[in-house]
């Protein structure tokens, strides 16, 4: 492959991008990454001088929503640029090559760019029964994944499937769908969760890695801090209503019309790390909460099992059918209260009975003593005063 | 064993039958421990009430958002009480080191001692109404110690750790709270689970409080030593001085 010596810039020019578009892209990207416009020339320089790093984009068990999101990146320019950076090599859904020809590319990149290429993974490998529940190219996906990861420089886990498991890993996870970081343990895995992740977040992360040739700063779960350091709740424009105590109590009530906080309607914004409330969706037009629906926590681990989506408290099924921490707790507390009351009742009765028994025993003993005394009068004829 | 008759009391209405037994008392709970007990009782009550309303907020407040801060205030009280609880708990741990030997009982479970479990069983039989007279204890009885250690002591660590982990989500990844308690999210990557566990912990404390208050009142009446006044004066008084 000739791309080994080409720079990013050369590839883009070959794809028909003008110099002007290229510089615009550099400006946009540096701002999106939070670096400020001053960094644009440095990004431009990097792209002009650095040999292009190939990106291999694999698809496992998934729905392709990440790709759908990615190709709708806010600025068409960003999409074009980033696609020209990556699409030449391998991406099942959007590459031109097909069949054996396509599979051959994998081998080629693996050899010519050993230890250099970035492996982007959409979806995850199901491990059950030798991985037969996902067979791209007729082979278990888990094999393809581990092989390609072995010579990659780093792995990007696109979306919640690759990052956490998502819907196919929801209980009872019949195919044993397993997130990428649990299969690839010897390479850095960058999680970009979301169902799907926001397009600008995806292009941002990719551009950062390609231009600066280093991993973005990650949090403890391997998510880029620049997009995942804060919760939806921390930057939500409805937050003042949360703090004031103004909630939507039911769909289409007065509060819903006034744009109150969706906490009581099960909004998972307080436990969801993502950039929706800052970057927004569809070119920043809106995001779920802005259109009146709570966050369902789509970028979080096992969010399918932390529902219901429309309840604040997580259901503790199967421990309690339809029950939450409050149902379970209140039931146990009521049982404890009842047990205490019953125990107190028995204690009172038993104490009274014990007392009566003792009194009766004393009386019986006294009567016995009296009888004995009458039967055998004292020899000195005087009464005993103390007992 | 000195038994005084009522005559020695010198009260006007005393009768010869008013036999009295010399009462003995032992200083068990030192002042810092007693203060800690009541501070904790109050803060836990506050935390349970405010915590409940964080999970299930009150009905919506009308008017402009800028005019009220109901949830903000409830959360502020919860977090303040959380700090008081945690700091008091640290001081309590310090006191377990420097205080008398009773101050250490809360942190110990003599798991490997056979006679300890015998004591637990004996005390359980007293609660199951199988005994006419309880035993005397200077500190906590073995059953009480078991419940206090497993529910209260471990529960305190659990609530403080999960509470501060949740708090760290607000103060951010660079805060000392996150630095100290962020590992909780290695166990529960989705903090919704931490909320659920913290919430269940609240109910554990509610149930603990029901049992604790009941047992204290009952023992105060039915056992052979004082209970409630002991946590006020520190003196454990015995109602008789017969041997066990
Ligand atoms: C016995 C002690 C405590 C009890 C009974 C308690 C109870 C609760 C309850 C029931 C909730 C609501 C959980 C939910 O459903 O989301 C809560 C939330 C919370 N608690 Fe506690 N808590 C205790 C101690 C603490 C401590 C020591 C801290 C540390 C500062 C703390 C900090 C928090 C935080 C940060 C939240 C989340 C608030 C939010 O989501 O807005 N708690 N607590
Ligand atoms: S709508 Fe959701 S994210 Fe926004 S303030 Fe309310 S609970 Fe938080
Ligand atoms: S608001 Fe929540 S559920 Fe919606 S896309 Fe963002 S993270 Fe996912």
Describe the overall structure.
The complex is a heterodimer of chains A (387) and B (244). Chain A is mainly α. Chain A is built from 16 helices and five strands. Chain A has a five-stranded parallel beta sheet, with helices on both faces. The model of chain A has no long low-confidence stretch (mean pLDDT 88). Chain B is mainly alpha-helical. Helix content of chain B is 59%, strand content 4%. Chain B contains eight helices and four strands, in the order E-E-E-H-H-H-H-H-H-H-H-E. In chain B, the strands form two sheets. In chain B, strands 1-2 form a two-stranded antiparallel sheet. In chain B, strands 3-4 form a two-stranded antiparallel ribbon. Chain B starts with a strand and ends in a 7-residue tail after the last strand. Residues 1-7 of chain B have low confidence and may be disordered. The structure holds protoporphyrin IX containing FE and iron/sulfur cluster (2 copies).
Q: What's the N-to-C terminus distance of chain A?
A: 116 Å
What is the number of beta strands of chain B? Answer: 4
Helix percent of chain B reads 55-70%
CATH architecture assignment name of the largest domain in chain A: 3-Layer(aba) Sandwich
Domain NADH:ubiquinone oxidoreductase-like 20kDa subunit (chain A): 63-208
Transmembrane segments (chain A): 21-40
Binding site for [4Fe-4S] cluster 1 (chain A): 63, 66, 161, 195
Binding site for [3Fe-4S] cluster (chain A): 276, 295, 298
